[in-house]
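Q: Could you write out the predicted structure for this multi-component system? I'm mainly interested in how the pieces pack against one another.
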Amino acid sequence: MATKEPIITLSAGPVAAYPAVMRALSRPIGYDYDRHFLEFYEAVNRKVTQALRSSSPALILHFEPAPGLEAAAASLIGPDDVVLNLASGVYGKGFGYWSARYNKELVEIEVPYNEAIDPAQVEAAFKKRPDIKVVSVVHHDTPSGTMNPVKEIGQIVRKHNALMLVDAVSSWGGMDIHPEESCADIFVTGPGKCLGGAPGLTIMAVNDRAWKHMEANPKAPRASVLSLLDWKDAWRQDKPFPFTPSVAEVNGLDGAIDLYLAEGPETVWKRHALTAKACRAGIKAMGLSLWAAREEIASPTCTAVRVPDGLKDDDILAAARSLYGVVFSSGRGETKGKLIRIGHMGLVAEPIYAVVAVTAFGGALKKLGRKVDVGAGVTAATAVIDQARA
Amino acid sequence: MATKEPIITLSAGPVAAYPAVMRALSRPIGYDYDRHFLEFYEAVNRKVTQALRSSSPALILHFEPAPGLEAAAASLIGPDDVVLNLASGVYGKGFGYWSARYNKELVEIEVPYNEAIDPAQVEAAFKKRPDIKVVSVVHHDTPSGTMNPVKEIGQIVRKHNALMLVDAVSSWGGMDIHPEESCADIFVTGPGKCLGGAPGLTIMAVNDRAWKHMEANPKAPRASVLSLLDWKDAWRQDKPFPFTPSVAEVNGLDGAIDLYLAEGPETVWKRHALTAKACRAGIKAMGLSLWAAREEIASPTCTAVRVPDGLKDDDILAAARSLYGVVFSSGRGETKGKLIRIGHMGLVAEPIYAVVAVTAFGGALKKLGRKVDVGAGVTAATAVIDQARA
Amino acid sequence: MATKEPIITLSAGPVAAYPAVMRALSRPIGYDYDRHFLEFYEAVNRKVTQALRSSSPALILHFEPAPGLEAAAASLIGPDDVVLNLASGVYGKGFGYWSARYNKELVEIEVPYNEAIDPAQVEAAFKKRPDIKVVSVVHHDTPSGTMNPVKEIGQIVRKHNALMLVDAVSSWGGMDIHPEESCADIFVTGPGKCLGGAPGLTIMAVNDRAWKHMEANPKAPRASVLSLLDWKDAWRQDKPFPFTPSVAEVNGLDGAIDLYLAEGPETVWKRHALTAKACRAGIKAMGLSLWAAREEIASPTCTAVRVPDGLKDDDILAAARSLYGVVFSSGRGETKGKLIRIGHMGLVAEPIYAVVAVTAFGGALKKLGRKVDVGAGVTAATAVIDQARA
Amino acid sequence: MATKEPIITLSAGPVAAYPAVMRALSRPIGYDYDRHFLEFYEAVNRKVTQALRSSSPALILHFEPAPGLEAAAASLIGPDDVVLNLASGVYGKGFGYWSARYNKELVEIEVPYNEAIDPAQVEAAFKKRPDIKVVSVVHHDTPSGTMNPVKEIGQIVRKHNALMLVDAVSSWGGMDIHPEESCADIFVTGPGKCLGGAPGLTIMAVNDRAWKHMEANPKAPRASVLSLLDWKDAWRQDKPFPFTPSVAEVNGLDGAIDLYLAEGPETVWKRHALTAKACRAGIKAMGLSLWAAREEIASPTCTAVRVPDGLKDDDILAAARSLYGVVFSSGRGETKGKLIRIGHMGLVAEPIYAVVAVTAFGGALKKLGRKVDVGAGVTAATAVIDQARA
């Protein structure tokens, strides 16, 4: 390639995979009709279920979570369903487009993309439209780096007997969020973000309420890549796969889940949180602004930094890469050009990478002519780390 | 796992991956917005294009070929299209179900599943229905191990100005079949069969005629996992990916394509053909029958053997596995129970594995009480090899 | 490379590594002064000790067993030691040359290289020379594929209060042989043969008697690659390594030992034995002669076949490789040209590879103009397998 | 393991291996008597020769460079040789002990271990002792992080018709040092330092003068792990290996050499130099002292920092590891306790790791109660980087 590989990637995903995941990806390709593979697949499914803290078997789909969410929309949302879509960012907004293909009517609550949905808004929506059947929400709207209060929203949705679909792709595995305690009926995530795995699978938790609704949906796809129902029992050794699973990705997932469970979820979340906290302290100490309206809604897995006036995001990204070999993510859609995202996911959710991020971010701005005190940034970041690990 | 891994897998796919592919799968996960990855992706695409001997850029879809074929049907076949589906096996028949979701009318030619489509039938169909717009055909209908004369059919389809969609998933890479010389407008294959790669991607060649038809199709999916159009220009460095590519699978594909091009396609095809020929000689010498009505239509990438009367396919498979650790494939759908398939794809498309197959197959029958002369089988198989390599 | 990789290697070592070993070899390189690596190294040492069924901690040397044996000779044999060297093959004979560099006097029992040492000869030697202090013996003299009755010899040596050094490089891990039950004071082996690992380490069991003798040896090397004493306590976390360990090899050893312990040593030995037995049945059924004077002394890990009169070993090897891609080993030194060795070690110690071996061996002879009934060979080989697994 | 893996290892070696090296280590284990492996080995040898910029074929020994140096001493230094050993550090001093085992007389020049040998001292030694036959010198004495002026010394040695043995283990591959331009007759290095490979091989360049001297040495070891002569022609396909090569290590070396040649040696050296320069700027800006008496003699591959008065090296190392997961090296022997070494070798010879080093070093001191301005350190380090890459 003409361009050298980055030295350190601090993206919002796909992220650098753990070495153990890379080794898992290189395992022999099992034959999907062989007993050994069937046992292995079920074992992986059980471990994913355990990691999801779910009482229903996990659902693995063999493509990444964006089409996974499309499939969830296609399968869950029927022609009689009124859907409340909660849009606090590009991904939340985007889900509405898929929903609209299938639903009877789309109701939407939209807030500025540096804000979070207020549970009271959801309560109000139900008051106005008690016929809402499905609520969709993104937990961490990655293009904004902001989080919605899914647990609070979930209780409201459940109370109104509606179904909730949660996109937790870039938060699960990096913080304390699970399907059942957040009342999610469909909970969508994947191995390519906080788990430090490869991006090529969707992981879902689907409960009985959701399965029943899908089974009753006359338009739910079958014999289709969009079908969740096709895969409902695929984890069982006595059931054939609807189509060939992505064996290498399952191998990789196995490696990623093993790491997660062995390190201990609480330990994993803690280092994600500390890395984010240190990073933000450093960013702010350099006089920069977080994108999130309030730091409480900033994700522990991603720090979105507002692009300083007069600068272009692409120039900052290019400078950080050429000076230090450090790669960040830009915004997406509406947020493109307005913010830069520093990922804290998986392997790089370690405090020292907050220092790397602050240095590369600050250094890039200096290269573009801004007066930035990188030393102050690093001092602030390390103060957070030192205190937490005193 | 309770069950031991097989020693040698001679399946009809997924197949054992080459060691170099396994190493490629373990490469670092690139970030899909980074310049280095974009250059890499384009380079892989170019090599795939070269291997396809196609003049249009290859199309890579990020799931395995079964949904890849569904996506092709969804994208290509419009509400005004009369489709001629050629069904000589389970997969050919199955494509008709997808087609029927989108087409105006489905015309079908069906032959027994141990037979091949006769080009004259296609010519006759066009005479009767000159409004046929799309013809779909499976080159190697894997559940039968039989091949259709796609090149001859292609000329007829082209002459009638219709579009032809070819499923060459389990033949391409193992024999001399390419999109342009077979007049395929959409040619669907993947890395998980003869290329000895992992099963998690679809590779397509799509020509301008097909792209135009899709662009004119009012129902062609967009912003969907079923969309081919979304991915048309994804290989270009200046275009974002519609959704995150399966990075690890692309790494693996790169490894597989490099091996294929380095060994030389003609050399690869030759060892597939010789392995199949030796295997069949051995199978016949043991008094067994090929499933294919005529050996000329048996695929060089898979030998389907008729299950001897009075025996169950699963018992034969289990005996071969327990005695020798050798795994074969059963039939699928209509052919389940009637045949057993010995794969000759990728790594195991080497003549010595014909001996392994004959031994394990014959030995399994002996275990089940049949009188089988395994020695005669091996003698016949090796005679073919010895003569070819004299 | 101009020459294609073999398809199947049935050598007497180095042998094909298990996929899990190859993955282990690709683990990150630990830093040998870091606590994590020190803990890992000790853990590996413990597992090796367990696999050796030894009550003293295993000794790992960071080069392959041939220099490992030289180091053992240099460390153990002092200027006052009379050494009895038992030579039933090239490796046994060779050890005498190293011994002669260090000992006071070398006494040798030599038998034809297709024969085994008779314990009575050892008893007689002690009668004649009660001053024998060290006895050296090769358990499986790989260049001959023959075994010596080490357990019986060991009891005699112990009775006479001498020390015994056993080379079990190519037998341990493939059959029931361990240091303590064979009264070996130094037991030398490695991961590159029956363990299916990489060849780059020596594994030893050294008991207190041997350590004491070394400590009392005024010429025992120190601060040298030839020193065993330097490494005595290297497994302990509080001791520095005498020089940098071969980290990747230790990673690979960890993978190999885990496989061995997980599969169960008895199971591993059983498949080695069955493969050898099936192979020999096939070889004999083709009218060929085993090299070993009696089949009882033929190793379960290697079958040495006498080169038929009028043929050259290299021609047979070349024919098997060009026809089938199968690689065997020739003899070494005295046995070069007289025999060909078929390895049954590690991954290929599976009965189906006996069939591969018989086919390739017989086919090679046919190519060279000999009348060989390969069918009869395979029939005989499979009869052994079928009976054992009935 | 009880202890977590480090996050970032900045050791003086073994160092983190490049991902491509880890993949190379996982390649199949070739059989050392097979033609394919022999071709591969020769090809690797050629590439190593090219990287050494040597006109004689490289010599690969199958253990790490410490015993490699012992073997060089044993092979080169004969009973009639007067040896001048240049000791500017622990490794230089140590070589003298090996030399003394073989030489007629050992003459030594020793300077303080934070200093370098002055070529004038060597000239003076020859004046006094014109019978000096061999001069041994360490280019980068790793336990001190200091370099000797090998090129200047080499010219003097050559002029006096003596032989020079250079230990360039931890400098070659990271800076512009090669055997012929430094008049080294034996030049010893390895893949486990600046090449970012695994530590398990020795790489040497040996010229005809050295070979002749060894061949004339009556005590030069043969049939021994200490023999260089045994391996002289081992790279040739028509010569057997003296003992089994460490196949996995050769695979890894191949991967490491390919990376080095592909990136371009000059580019590699440049990033080593810049990383070291930035690191030292940061270290000094925090008020710390370099170990080296003058910065000119500090190696571009390792920064040795004087342990501040009143602190213990182990406490600093432990603090850096627990706070940031960053691992450094302590001193060795005489330098243990007096300095801490920050490695800049291979993968981590990238400027951003200078920032990591400065942060972790400074942070560790702060944890131990010292007033350290980490911000100033990072500012100074980045200033160096920013200027170099402006």
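A: Regarding packing and overall arrangement: Chain B has twelve helices and 14 strands.
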